[in-house]
Every structure is written in structure tokens, then in C-alpha cells.
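User: Show me a protein chain along with its predicted structure.
Assistant: Here is one chain, sequence first, then C-alpha cells.
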Amino acid sequence: MIWAHSATWSDQDRGSITLWLLGLSIAVLFLGGLSLDLWRAFNERRLVAGIVDAAAIAGASGIDEPLLRSTGEVRLDPAAAEGRALANLAGHSATVDAAVTVAADGSAITVTGSREVPLTLLGVLLPDQGPLTFEVSATSRPQRGP
């Protein structure tokens, strides 16, 4: 059998599919790394949001009991609220950089947490890019029950 050299093919076209597939592979690797790293970051953010919410709710239970018993006014005791929030933060296995703020009038407690998520696959493709950093905040207020 004799193979004829086609007029549409030339010696310049040899290997162009290999280069095209190599470029496509790099693009798929980049998109895969982006989706993997973003999924990890969203998961970590959700975890930190849950921890911060729980700490804010725990802090809101630190009310000023003598004031409540004498006047019926529900107000936070700043030291008790902060202590409860910090104790709740310390009770979690995940580490969160957190700050606790109690309003000056004792009406609310705000817990702010942040975390850095290092890049995995994107870190290989973008070595100069640092970790993804995010911050989550939760505010809780004490309320009188029914």
C-alpha cells in the first residue's frame, strides 16, 4: 500500500495537536486547582463562621445578673461576656485568630475571626501568590425570654 502525501497536510503542521493538547492540559490543571482551592476556602470560611457564631451566642449569655435582678434590665457584663466567648473559642479544635468586642453600653457582643488558607494546586502554578485570607464577624444581643 502506498501512502500519498495529502495536499492539506504539510510538514509545518506536524506536532500542532501535541502542543494544543499540552496547552489544554495546563488550562484544565489551572481550572482544577482553582476549583479545589476555592472549595477548600469556602469550607474553611463556613467552619470559622460556625465557630464565631457559637462564640458570639455564648458571649451573649454573659448578662449582668445583679442589674437584671434589681431593675429587670437585660445588659451584658463585659467581663463575663468576653470570658464566655473566649472560653467557647478555646473549646474548638480548629484554630481561629479571633477578637472579641463588647459594646460600651452592654447591648451586644461582636466576635471577629480570621483565617488563612494556603493554596495547594494553585500554589504550584502561581508560586508568588500568598494564602487566601478571609474574615468573619458575628454579633449577638441578649434577649429576655418569654
